[in-house]
Amino acid sequence: MALDNFKTAFMNTYQEFFPKVLIAMQIANTRLLEQLTYGQSVERVRYDISSVDVQDITNHTDMTIDSVTDASETLTVNNWKGVAFPLSEKEMVQAGPLNPGTIIGGQVAIKLATYVDADVLYETTNAALDFDNGDLTTLSSTGTAITINSTTTPQMVTRMPAKLKRNNQTLQNMAFVLDSYGIADMFQYLLGKNADFVNSLFQNGYTNESVANAQVYCSENLTSEALFAMATQPTDGDTVVINGVTFTFKTTLGSTAGNVLIGGSADAARANLTSAINATSGAGTTYVELSAANRRLITKTYRLSATNDNTANTMTLIGKGSGRLTLSETLTDATDTWSKNFIHAYFGKKGAIDVVVQKDVKMDMRQEPKQPTTNVISRILYGIKTFYDGSQKFLDVLINA
């Protein structure tokens, strides 16, 4: 799924779902290369002319020959994802006029489509330039995300294209991808100043309006990022909550799902929390594995990954396609808290991110040999890359969650 040519792969009912959820393929540079197989790559050469300088010319004197270097960049087709579900003969009969294959198939198609969508939108983090609160009034980013309000909205609208222009980019064929809350917050300040946004807001992902000469798209598959600062050893019973999933620091680990061993220091506790989120080594000794339902939320639904930093006394949390995160904590030390929580929005030229997908999406219906059940299996093979020249064409806009 997540393809421009999905019409050749799915029945019409499936197609009804896709335009409402896919944004990335509308802004990416999509190359449909049918012959590519798993592990094959697309290579591009990039030339570096930074050492070539304009120089004075003196009669009868040799000019200085500056060097031009090159480097290759590779996009590898190595993402092979799929969905599968069973349909029994009994279920088909009991469904009556409903068609479970179509209904369920449409829903799982959304899951696969949004997964690919999130992978593409994650490339926003590879932009050569960030745009954040510092850019609203100065010429440099500060790492502080923007809170959208009546003051920052006009600053964003005017200064985002200015930053791209300063980076030697033409402001044509532009896109601005933001989530529903971000669009709603921006548009409430633009209403009455531009057009009637209300009627077109959130329709099929594209709002049918423009901001700063960029078509505005709405996506809930944006990448989230949060920073958890904890320099003090937590107290027994202190908790950290991520989108409703609770992790509890304990002096003695115990057996309750989500418990995290405090250990001998703040660094140890933070490292154990990181392992508990990532489900890496330490299960049963430094943390108690989550329930199956909560593990699915953390790993599959929100696609969260955590990175511990003992030097900075922080843990960075990334949610690929999770959208805005709801975070809280009950730490005894009030200085230990979630210090940052924001999303990565895309502003820039369309086609800056390269996506290579097999031309044909595979979907099979396989009959079980010893039971009246049909397995429906769909899969997709793709590769994603933001090449150097593409990274110069868009901004990673940091928006407070």
List keywords for this structure.
401 residues; alpha+beta; 2 domains; nine-stranded mixed beta sheet; five-stranded mixed beta sheet; 9 helices; 20 strands; globular; disordered N terminus
Explain what this protein looks like in three dimensions:
The protein is of the alpha+beta class and 401 residues long. The protein folds into two domains: 1-46 and 71-218 and 346-401; 231-335, no CATH class. It is built from nine helices and 20 strands. Strands 5, 6, 7, 8, 9, 13, 14, 16 and 20 form a nine-stranded mixed sheet that branches. The two termini are 29 Å apart. 35% of the residues are buried. The model is unreliable at 1-20 and 195-204 (pLDDT under 50).
What would you say about this model in short?
With 401 residues, the protein is α+β, with helices and mostly antiparallel strands. It has nine helices and 20 strands.
List the helices and strands and how they pair.
Layout: H1 12-17, H2 24-27, E1 29-32, E2 41-48, E3 69-76, E4 79-88, H3 89-94, H4 100-122, E5 129-131, H5 152-166, E6 174-178, H6 180-190, E7 206-211, E8 214-218, E9 223-229, E10 239-242, E11 245-250, E12 259-261, H7 266-278, H8 292-301, E13 304-309, E14 314-319, E15 327-329, E16 337-349, E17 354-357, E18 362-367, E19 373-385, H9 388-391, E20 394-400
Parallel strand pairs: 1-17, 5-20, 6-8, 11-12
Antiparallel strand pairs: 2-3, 4-19, 6-16, 7-8, 9-14, 9-16, 10-11, 10-15, 13-14, 16-20, 17-19, 18-19
